[in-house]
Amino acid sequence: MPQPELEDLRLFLIVVDHGSIAAAARADGIPKPTLSRRIANLEAAVGEKLFDRGANRLSLTPRGDELNARLRPAMLSVVQALSELDDWHSDYAGHLTMHIPPSLLHFGIRQTISVFLEAHPNTKFDLALNNRPVQRLDTNTHLALVIGGLPDSDLIAARVGQTHRILVASPDYLETHSEIVHPDQLRDHIVIAPGPHVPLGLSHGNGKNWTQPFEPHFVIGDIRDVTNEAVAGRGVAISTALFATEDLAKGRLIQLLQDWQEPPMPISILYRDNRLQSRLERDFIKVLRAELNKSLTDHL
């Protein structure tokens, strides 16, 4: 019989305390499917069900109640021992490498790192700015920020916000070019997009779908530059609500085809399982998550 993993036992106690998988996942900051899988692994290792699944709340089985009673004092001893180890080396020392899309750098990341360095001067950070999709974290990369689809891997994905792609153009451009009332008419315009470009897939309120059948005329790595090209009147830009909000509010841009929408894209921090992280990684991720949740919300 496989032995239960320590992390699964810790998560078991959190589920007991919160009464549901969803509430425990929110409290611990891990995805709900990951927590469900870990509880299933623990039940497989124990060989018995630990919870009865009710409509609104989980309840302990007799075996789960026994495990809770025996495990809780032992886990408190483990937590105390780890806390004492942290006290022996109270400051952080280490090096973190982060993969970040350049367009997200302005949403509290630099400020968070600066404050962290002031408090913990023995730490160092390397930022790798790249718009390429992240499929995995190499041995020298500790975490990554991604916009959109997530890789199929064992990485943890903590959602910190969302955005969606929109089509925008300046009033001056629209005055001198043909009207756009259907996505097919984009072929008659200069389309500017961030790279690497992912074709648009739009849905109308009436149930019709449209997928972009052409390549954009101009691809730029940073979505901020894409949006600025539209402000300058050089074409129709595939921007996002997150980066075009201010220009739309000030009338520098107009959103096109508002009846055609793409689904929202999550903005997430990717990182390894907590068991594979240093204390520096775990605590910095908590600080970064809090700042991004606030910063991205403020810009929506």
Q: Roughly what fraction of the amino acids lie in strands?
A: 15-25%
The CATH architecture of the largest domain: 3-Layer(aba) Sandwich
Report the biggest beta sheet as strand number plus sense, adding barrel if it closes.
Answer: 5 strands, mixed
DSSP helix count? 9
For CATH, the homologous superfamily of the largest domain is named as Periplasmic binding protein-like II
Number of domains: 3
Tell me the radius of gyration.
24 Å
Order the strands across the largest sheet as they lie in space: 4-3-5-15-6
Low-confidence blocks of residues: none
Structural class: alpha/beta
Shape: elongated
Mean of pLDDT: 87
Order of helix and strand elements from N to C terminus: HHHEEHEHEEEEHEEEEHEHEEEH
The top-level CATH class of the largest domain is Alpha Beta
Beta strands, count: 15
What share of the residues lie within helices? 25-40%
Helix-strand layout with pairing:
Elements: H1 6-18, H2 21-28, H3 32-46, E1 51-53, E2 58-60, H4 62-88, E3 94-100, H5 109-119, E4 123-129, E5 143-147, E6 156-163, E7 165-169, H6 171-175, E8 191-194, E9 201-204, E10 209-211, E11 218-220, H7 223-231, E12 236-240, H8 241-249, E13 254-256, E14 260-261, E15 265-271, H9 279-298
Parallel strand pairs: 3-4, 3-5, 8-11, 8-12
Antiparallel strand pairs: 1-2, 5-15, 6-15, 7-12, 7-13, 9-10, 9-14
Helix pairs in contact: 1-2, 1-3, 1-4, 5-9
Written description of the protein model:
By secondary structure, the chain is α/β, with parallel strands linked by helices. It has 3 domains: 6-88, Orthogonal Bundle (Arc Repressor Mutant, subunit A), CATH 1.10.10; 94-160 and 265-298, Periplasmic binding protein-like II (D-Maltodextrin-Binding Protein, domain 2); 165-261, 3-Layer(aba) Sandwich (D-Maltodextrin-Binding Protein, domain 2). It is built from 9 helices and 15 strands. It has helices spanning 6-18, 21-28, 32-46, 62-88, 109-119, 171-175, 223-231, 241-249, 279-298; strands at 51-53, 58-60, 94-100, 123-129, 143-147, 156-163, 165-169, 191-194, 201-204, 209-211, 218-220, 236-240, 254-256, 260-261, 265-271. The chain has a 5-stranded mixed beta sheet with strand order 4-3-5-15-6, with helices on one face. The chain has a 5-stranded mixed beta sheet with strand order 11-8-12-7-13. Helix 1 crosses helix 2 (21-28), helix 1 crosses helix 3 and helix 5 (109-119) packs antiparallel against helix 9. The longest helix has 27 residues, at 62-88. The radius of gyration is 24 Å and the shape is elongated. The termini are far apart. It comes from Ruegeria atlantica. Belongs to the LysR transcriptional regulatory family.
